[in-house]
Amino acid sequence: MSSAPPPLEPTLKPCSPWRLSVAPMIDWTDRHCRYFHRLLTQRTRLYTEMVNAGAIVHGGTERHLRYNAEEHPVALQLGGSEPGRLAQAARLGAEWGYDEINLNCGCPSERVQRGAFGACLMAEPHLVADCVKAMADVVDVPVTVKHRIGIDKIESYDFVRDFVGTVAGAGCQVFIVHARNAWLKGLSPKENREIPPLRYELVYQLKRDFPRLTIVLNGGVTTDEQIAHHLQHVDGVMLGREAYHHPWMMTAWDANFLGGAPHLTTPDEVEAAMVAYMAREAVQHGTTWYAIARHMLGLHHGRRGARLWRQVWSDHKLKDWPAAEVAARARTQWQAEALA
Length: 340
Description:
InterPro entries: Aldolase_TIM, DUS-like_FMN-bd, DUS_fam, DusA, tRNA_hU_synthase_CS. GO terms for molecular function: flavin adenine dinucleotide binding; FMN binding; tRNA binding; tRNA-dihydrouridine20 synthase activity. Catalyzes the synthesis of 5,6-dihydrouridine (D), a modified base found in the D-loop of most tRNAs, via the reduction of the C5-C6 double bond in target uridines. Specifically modifies U20 and U20a in tRNAs. This is tRNA-dihydrouridine(20/20a) synthase. Its cofactor is FMN. This protein is an alpha/beta fold. It folds into 2 domains: about 20-255, TIM Barrel, CATH 3.20.20.70; about 265-340, Four Helix Bundle (Hemerythrin (Met), subunit A) (Up-down Bundle). About 40% of the residues lie in helices and about 15% in strands. It has helices at about 30-40, 55, 60-65, 85-95, 110-115, 125-135, 155-170, 190, 200-210, 225-230, 240-245, 255, 265-285, 290-295, 305-315, 325-340; strands at about 20, 45, 50, 75-80, 100-105, 145-150, 175-180, 215-220, 235-240. The chain has an 8-stranded parallel barrel with strand order 1-2-4-5-6-7-8-9, surrounded by 5 helices. Helix 4 (about 85-95) runs parallel beside helix 6 (about 125-135), helix 6 (about 125-135) runs parallel beside helix 7 (about 155-170) and helix 15 runs antiparallel to helix 16. The radius of gyration is 20 Å and the shape is globular. The termini are far apart. About 40% of the residues are buried.
Protein backbone atom coordinates (compact mmCIF):
# COMPACT_ATOMS: atom_id res chain seq x y z
CA MET A 1 0.00 0.00 0.00
CA SER A 2 1.43 3.40 -0.95
CA SER A 3 2.41 5.83 1.77
CA ALA A 4 0.37 8.64 0.18
CA PRO A 5 -3.01 7.36 -1.00
CA PRO A 6 -4.81 9.49 -3.57
CA PRO A 7 -7.43 12.02 -2.41
CA LEU A 8 -11.05 10.93 -2.29
CA GLU A 9 -12.79 11.25 -5.62
CA PRO A 10 -16.46 10.90 -6.56
CA THR A 11 -17.51 7.56 -7.98
CA LEU A 12 -17.30 7.75 -11.79
CA LYS A 13 -18.73 4.33 -12.65
CA PRO A 14 -21.84 2.50 -11.45
CA CYS A 15 -21.35 1.28 -7.90
CA SER A 16 -21.01 -2.42 -7.26
CA PRO A 17 -23.50 -3.60 -4.63
CA TRP A 18 -20.41 -4.71 -2.68
CA ARG A 19 -18.48 -1.43 -2.99
CA LEU A 20 -18.67 -0.79 0.77
CA SER A 21 -19.85 -3.12 3.50
CA VAL A 22 -19.69 -3.72 7.24
CA ALA A 23 -18.27 -7.09 8.16
CA PRO A 24 -20.14 -9.91 9.90
CA MET A 25 -18.92 -9.93 13.52
CA ILE A 26 -20.04 -12.56 16.01
CA ASP A 27 -21.86 -11.08 19.02
CA TRP A 28 -21.74 -7.61 17.46
CA THR A 29 -23.62 -7.24 14.18
CA ASP A 30 -27.02 -8.36 15.40
CA ARG A 31 -30.21 -6.73 14.09
CA HIS A 32 -30.02 -3.90 16.62
CA CYS A 33 -26.50 -3.04 15.53
CA ARG A 34 -27.54 -3.14 11.88
CA TYR A 35 -30.52 -0.87 12.53
CA PHE A 36 -28.14 1.63 14.14
CA HIS A 37 -25.71 1.43 11.23
CA ARG A 38 -28.51 2.00 8.75
CA LEU A 39 -29.25 5.32 10.42
CA LEU A 40 -25.71 6.37 9.48
CA THR A 41 -25.50 5.05 5.91
CA GLN A 42 -28.32 4.17 3.56
CA ARG A 43 -26.32 2.33 0.91
CA THR A 44 -23.56 0.40 2.68
CA ARG A 45 -24.12 -3.37 2.61
CA LEU A 46 -24.68 -4.90 6.06
CA TYR A 47 -24.01 -8.46 7.19
CA THR A 48 -25.45 -10.56 9.96
CA GLU A 49 -23.15 -12.17 12.46
CA MET A 50 -22.36 -15.74 11.43
CA VAL A 51 -25.30 -18.10 12.01
CA ASN A 52 -24.86 -21.85 12.20
CA ALA A 53 -26.94 -23.35 9.38
CA GLY A 54 -28.04 -26.17 11.66
CA ALA A 55 -29.44 -23.74 14.21
CA ILE A 56 -31.66 -22.20 11.53
CA VAL A 57 -32.87 -25.52 10.17
CA HIS A 58 -33.54 -27.15 13.53
CA GLY A 59 -36.06 -24.81 15.08
CA GLY A 60 -34.27 -21.48 15.45
CA THR A 61 -35.52 -19.92 12.24
CA GLU A 62 -37.28 -16.83 13.58
CA ARG A 63 -34.78 -16.16 16.35
CA HIS A 64 -31.85 -16.23 13.95
CA LEU A 65 -33.41 -14.69 10.85
CA ARG A 66 -35.58 -11.85 12.18
CA TYR A 67 -34.39 -8.44 11.05
CA ASN A 68 -35.70 -4.92 10.51
CA ALA A 69 -37.00 -3.94 7.07
CA GLU A 70 -34.82 -0.82 7.23
CA GLU A 71 -31.65 -2.93 7.09
CA HIS A 72 -31.68 -3.63 3.33
CA PRO A 73 -29.35 -4.30 1.63
CA VAL A 74 -28.55 -6.98 4.21
CA ALA A 75 -26.76 -10.31 3.80
CA LEU A 76 -27.08 -13.49 5.86
CA GLN A 77 -23.78 -15.15 6.70
CA LEU A 78 -23.97 -18.90 7.28
CA GLY A 79 -21.55 -21.27 8.95
CA GLY A 80 -21.56 -24.89 7.93
CA SER A 81 -20.00 -27.53 5.71
CA GLU A 82 -22.88 -29.85 4.80
CA PRO A 83 -24.28 -28.91 1.38
CA GLY A 84 -27.79 -30.16 2.10
CA ARG A 85 -28.13 -28.35 5.42
CA LEU A 86 -26.64 -25.17 4.00
CA ALA A 87 -29.11 -25.33 1.13
CA GLN A 88 -32.00 -25.58 3.59
CA ALA A 89 -30.73 -22.63 5.61
CA ALA A 90 -30.06 -20.57 2.48
CA ARG A 91 -33.57 -21.23 1.18
CA LEU A 92 -35.05 -20.07 4.49
CA GLY A 93 -32.84 -16.97 4.44
CA ALA A 94 -33.98 -16.09 0.93
CA GLU A 95 -37.61 -16.66 1.90
CA TRP A 96 -37.16 -14.23 4.77
CA GLY A 97 -35.95 -11.64 2.26
CA TYR A 98 -32.18 -11.47 2.71
CA ASP A 99 -30.39 -9.91 -0.26
CA GLU A 100 -27.43 -12.30 -0.22
CA ILE A 101 -26.33 -15.59 1.33
CA ASN A 102 -22.67 -15.62 2.40
CA LEU A 103 -20.66 -18.67 3.38
CA ASN A 104 -18.06 -18.23 6.13
CA CYS A 105 -14.70 -19.70 5.11
CA GLY A 106 -12.63 -17.27 7.12
CA CYS A 107 -13.30 -17.59 10.85
CA PRO A 108 -10.23 -19.19 12.51
CA SER A 109 -11.61 -19.95 15.98
CA GLU A 110 -11.18 -23.50 17.26
CA ARG A 111 -14.82 -23.52 18.36
CA VAL A 112 -15.89 -22.96 14.76
CA GLN A 113 -13.38 -25.53 13.50
CA ARG A 114 -14.96 -28.16 15.73
CA GLY A 115 -18.09 -27.67 13.66
CA ALA A 116 -15.99 -28.28 10.51
CA PHE A 117 -16.54 -24.82 9.08
CA GLY A 118 -14.87 -21.44 8.94
CA ALA A 119 -11.30 -21.00 7.69
CA CYS A 120 -10.53 -24.72 7.80
CA LEU A 121 -12.81 -25.11 4.76
CA MET A 122 -10.17 -23.42 2.62
CA ALA A 123 -8.31 -26.74 2.70
CA GLU A 124 -11.31 -28.35 0.97
CA PRO A 125 -12.18 -26.12 -2.00
CA HIS A 126 -14.20 -28.83 -3.74
CA LEU A 127 -16.40 -29.20 -0.65
CA VAL A 128 -16.88 -25.42 -0.59
CA ALA A 129 -17.80 -25.57 -4.28
CA ASP A 130 -20.38 -28.26 -3.51
CA CYS A 131 -21.81 -26.11 -0.72
CA VAL A 132 -22.03 -23.04 -2.95
CA LYS A 133 -23.73 -24.98 -5.74
CA ALA A 134 -26.23 -26.55 -3.34
CA MET A 135 -27.20 -23.10 -2.03
CA ALA A 136 -27.23 -21.42 -5.43
CA ASP A 137 -29.55 -24.12 -6.76
CA VAL A 138 -32.31 -23.21 -4.30
CA VAL A 139 -32.11 -19.39 -4.08
CA ASP A 140 -32.37 -16.50 -6.50
CA VAL A 141 -30.09 -14.15 -4.55
CA PRO A 142 -26.27 -14.11 -4.83
CA VAL A 143 -24.36 -16.78 -2.94
CA THR A 144 -20.97 -15.39 -1.90
CA VAL A 145 -17.92 -16.57 0.06
CA LYS A 146 -15.83 -14.79 2.69
CA HIS A 147 -12.37 -16.29 3.16
CA ARG A 148 -8.71 -15.66 4.01
CA ILE A 149 -5.66 -15.50 1.72
CA GLY A 150 -4.31 -18.70 3.27
CA ILE A 151 -4.27 -20.96 6.30
CA ASP A 152 -1.47 -21.66 8.78
CA LYS A 153 1.92 -21.31 7.06
CA ILE A 154 0.60 -21.72 3.52
CA GLU A 155 1.63 -18.34 2.10
CA SER A 156 1.73 -19.18 -1.60
CA TYR A 157 -0.56 -17.08 -3.77
CA ASP A 158 -1.32 -20.25 -5.73
CA PHE A 159 -3.29 -21.59 -2.75
CA VAL A 160 -5.85 -18.77 -2.64
CA ARG A 161 -5.91 -18.46 -6.44
CA ASP A 162 -6.81 -22.13 -6.81
CA PHE A 163 -9.39 -21.89 -4.03
CA VAL A 164 -11.13 -18.98 -5.76
CA GLY A 165 -10.92 -20.66 -9.15
CA THR A 166 -12.47 -23.89 -7.88
CA VAL A 167 -15.31 -22.17 -6.02
CA ALA A 168 -15.98 -19.79 -8.90
CA GLY A 169 -16.44 -22.85 -11.10
CA ALA A 170 -19.47 -23.75 -8.94
CA GLY A 171 -21.10 -20.40 -9.71
CA CYS A 172 -19.82 -18.06 -6.99
CA GLN A 173 -19.21 -14.60 -8.43
CA VAL A 174 -18.37 -12.62 -5.29
CA PHE A 175 -15.40 -13.26 -3.00
CA ILE A 176 -14.76 -11.23 0.16
CA VAL A 177 -11.09 -11.70 0.97
CA HIS A 178 -9.60 -11.04 4.41
CA ALA A 179 -6.01 -10.18 3.52
CA ARG A 180 -4.42 -12.25 6.33
CA ASN A 181 -3.68 -15.90 6.74
CA ALA A 182 -5.79 -17.75 9.31
CA TRP A 183 -3.71 -19.71 11.79
CA LEU A 184 -5.86 -22.62 12.85
CA LYS A 185 -3.77 -23.55 15.89
CA GLY A 186 -1.91 -21.56 18.50
CA LEU A 187 -3.58 -18.17 18.09
CA SER A 188 -6.78 -16.75 19.52
CA PRO A 189 -9.32 -15.15 17.17
CA LYS A 190 -8.12 -11.74 18.42
CA GLU A 191 -4.50 -12.60 17.65
CA ASN A 192 -5.59 -13.88 14.24
CA ARG A 193 -6.80 -10.36 13.47
CA GLU A 194 -3.43 -8.81 14.33
CA ILE A 195 -0.44 -11.14 14.06
CA PRO A 196 -0.41 -12.62 10.54
CA PRO A 197 0.74 -9.83 8.23
CA LEU A 198 -1.72 -8.13 5.92
CA ARG A 199 -0.88 -8.80 2.27
CA TYR A 200 -3.17 -6.63 0.21
CA GLU A 201 -1.18 -7.31 -2.95
CA LEU A 202 -2.54 -10.89 -3.04
CA VAL A 203 -6.11 -9.56 -3.06
CA TYR A 204 -5.22 -7.13 -5.84
CA GLN A 205 -3.71 -10.02 -7.79
CA LEU A 206 -6.93 -12.01 -7.47
CA LYS A 207 -8.79 -9.17 -9.17
CA ARG A 208 -6.23 -9.08 -11.97
CA ASP A 209 -6.42 -12.85 -12.45
CA PHE A 210 -10.23 -13.02 -12.19
CA PRO A 211 -11.42 -9.75 -13.74
CA ARG A 212 -14.99 -11.02 -14.19
CA LEU A 213 -15.40 -11.80 -10.49
CA THR A 214 -16.30 -9.29 -7.79
CA ILE A 215 -13.37 -9.13 -5.35
CA VAL A 216 -13.89 -7.33 -2.03
CA LEU A 217 -10.96 -6.57 0.28
CA ASN A 218 -11.24 -6.93 4.06
CA GLY A 219 -8.77 -6.48 6.90
CA GLY A 220 -7.01 -3.57 8.61
CA VAL A 221 -8.81 -0.73 6.83
CA THR A 222 -9.36 2.26 9.12
CA THR A 223 -9.76 5.44 7.04
CA ASP A 224 -11.63 6.78 4.04
CA GLU A 225 -8.28 7.46 2.37
CA GLN A 226 -7.39 3.78 2.63
CA ILE A 227 -10.80 2.83 1.25
CA ALA A 228 -10.24 5.11 -1.76
CA HIS A 229 -6.81 3.61 -2.34
CA HIS A 230 -8.03 0.00 -2.26
CA LEU A 231 -10.91 0.80 -4.59
CA GLN A 232 -8.33 1.57 -7.27
CA HIS A 233 -7.50 -2.16 -7.26
CA VAL A 234 -10.62 -4.11 -6.20
CA ASP A 235 -14.40 -3.88 -6.50
CA GLY A 236 -15.20 -3.26 -2.87
CA VAL A 237 -13.94 -2.81 0.67
CA MET A 238 -15.35 -4.29 3.86
CA LEU A 239 -14.67 -2.75 7.29
CA GLY A 240 -15.31 -4.37 10.65
CA ARG A 241 -14.15 -3.16 14.04
CA GLU A 242 -13.18 0.31 12.90
CA ALA A 243 -16.73 0.95 11.69
CA TYR A 244 -18.17 -0.54 14.87
CA HIS A 245 -16.05 1.50 17.29
CA HIS A 246 -16.10 4.74 15.25
CA PRO A 247 -19.49 4.52 13.55
CA TRP A 248 -19.77 8.18 12.58
CA MET A 249 -17.21 7.56 9.84
CA MET A 250 -19.97 5.75 7.94
CA THR A 251 -21.92 8.98 7.46
CA ALA A 252 -19.47 10.06 4.74
CA TRP A 253 -19.63 6.84 2.74
CA ASP A 254 -22.86 7.36 0.80
CA ALA A 255 -21.63 10.64 -0.68
CA ASN A 256 -17.93 9.79 -0.99
CA PHE A 257 -18.18 6.29 -2.42
CA LEU A 258 -21.73 5.15 -3.15
CA GLY A 259 -23.23 7.89 -5.27
CA GLY A 260 -25.66 8.99 -2.57
CA ALA A 261 -26.57 12.28 -0.96
CA PRO A 262 -24.52 13.78 1.88
CA HIS A 263 -25.56 12.67 5.35
CA LEU A 264 -27.41 15.48 7.14
CA THR A 265 -28.37 13.80 10.43
CA THR A 266 -26.57 14.85 13.63
CA PRO A 267 -25.36 12.44 16.33
CA ASP A 268 -28.09 13.76 18.63
CA GLU A 269 -30.77 12.94 16.04
CA VAL A 270 -29.37 9.44 15.60
CA GLU A 271 -29.45 8.92 19.35
CA ALA A 272 -33.08 10.08 19.47
CA ALA A 273 -33.96 7.64 16.69
CA MET A 274 -32.29 4.83 18.64
CA VAL A 275 -34.22 5.71 21.80
CA ALA A 276 -37.46 5.50 19.82
CA TYR A 277 -36.32 2.15 18.42
CA MET A 278 -35.56 0.89 21.96
CA ALA A 279 -39.05 1.84 23.06
CA ARG A 280 -40.61 -0.07 20.14
CA GLU A 281 -38.44 -3.11 20.79
CA ALA A 282 -39.41 -3.14 24.46
CA VAL A 283 -43.11 -3.21 23.57
CA GLN A 284 -42.93 -5.58 20.59
CA HIS A 285 -40.29 -8.07 21.72
CA GLY A 286 -39.55 -7.36 25.38
CA THR A 287 -35.98 -6.32 24.51
CA THR A 288 -34.17 -4.28 27.14
CA TRP A 289 -32.55 -1.05 26.02
CA TYR A 290 -29.28 -2.37 27.44
CA ALA A 291 -29.05 -5.04 24.73
CA ILE A 292 -29.35 -2.33 22.08
CA ALA A 293 -27.42 0.61 23.51
CA ARG A 294 -24.11 -1.28 23.60
CA HIS A 295 -23.87 -0.92 19.83
CA MET A 296 -24.04 2.88 19.82
CA LEU A 297 -21.44 3.65 22.49
CA GLY A 298 -19.04 5.02 19.86
CA LEU A 299 -21.60 7.47 18.47
CA HIS A 300 -20.18 10.55 20.21
CA HIS A 301 -16.54 9.49 20.01
CA GLY A 302 -14.24 12.50 20.31
CA ARG A 303 -16.88 14.90 21.61
CA ARG A 304 -16.51 16.59 24.98
CA GLY A 305 -18.69 14.85 27.55
CA ALA A 306 -18.84 11.56 25.64
CA ARG A 307 -17.15 9.61 28.43
CA LEU A 308 -19.89 10.25 30.98
CA TRP A 309 -22.55 9.73 28.31
CA ARG A 310 -21.12 6.26 27.62
CA GLN A 311 -21.01 5.46 31.33
CA VAL A 312 -24.73 6.10 31.69
CA TRP A 313 -25.66 4.01 28.65
CA SER A 314 -23.41 1.22 29.98
CA ASP A 315 -24.85 1.19 33.51
CA HIS A 316 -26.57 -2.17 34.01
CA LYS A 317 -28.14 -0.82 37.21
CA LEU A 318 -30.44 1.25 35.00
CA LYS A 319 -31.68 -1.73 32.96
CA ASP A 320 -35.22 -1.44 34.29
CA TRP A 321 -35.52 2.25 33.42
CA PRO A 322 -37.37 3.32 30.25
CA ALA A 323 -34.91 4.19 27.49
CA ALA A 324 -36.12 7.80 27.39
CA GLU A 325 -35.22 8.26 31.06
CA VAL A 326 -31.77 6.78 30.52
CA ALA A 327 -31.29 9.15 27.59
CA ALA A 328 -32.29 12.11 29.76
CA ARG A 329 -29.83 11.08 32.47
CA ALA A 330 -27.07 10.62 29.89
CA ARG A 331 -27.80 14.08 28.51
CA THR A 332 -27.63 15.61 31.98
CA GLN A 333 -24.26 14.00 32.66
CA TRP A 334 -23.03 15.09 29.24
CA GLN A 335 -23.99 18.72 29.85
CA ALA A 336 -22.44 18.70 33.33
CA GLU A 337 -19.08 17.61 31.97
CA ALA A 338 -19.28 19.95 29.00
CA LEU A 339 -19.85 22.91 31.34
CA ALA A 340 -17.15 21.89 33.84
